[in-house]
Design a protein that fits this description.
The structure is a single chain. This protein is mainly alpha-helical. It has a domain at 11-57. Helices cover 66% and strands 0% of the residues. The chain has two helices and no strands. It has helices at residues 4-30, 41-61.
């Protein structure tokens, strides 16, 4: 049986590993090694959901104007 402190340490690395895997998948798709549609439908749905969630969080967290914006917040 895994000790709770070791299980917690493993769980904490899961989030960063998920991000690494997402980035790896994006690179493989961008370079044409795989196509998004090559992935199982369940994986496609999960990746799309995470992309949408990240995009919405990014929009909410954008406190400073981008280079093209002349207005101050």
């Amino acid at each position: 049986m895994i000790q709770p402190d070791k299980a917690n340490a493993l769980s904490q690395t899961d989030t960063s590993l998920v991000r690494v895997l997402e980035d790896l998948i994006d690179v493989l798709i961008t370079r044409g090694v795989i196509q998004f549609t090559d992935l199982p439908e369940a994986a496609q749905a999960k990746l799309l959901e995470r992309r949408e969630t990240r995009a919405s969080l990014s929009n909410r967290l954008q406190l400073l104007p981008t280079d093209g914006d002349n207005d101050l917040v």
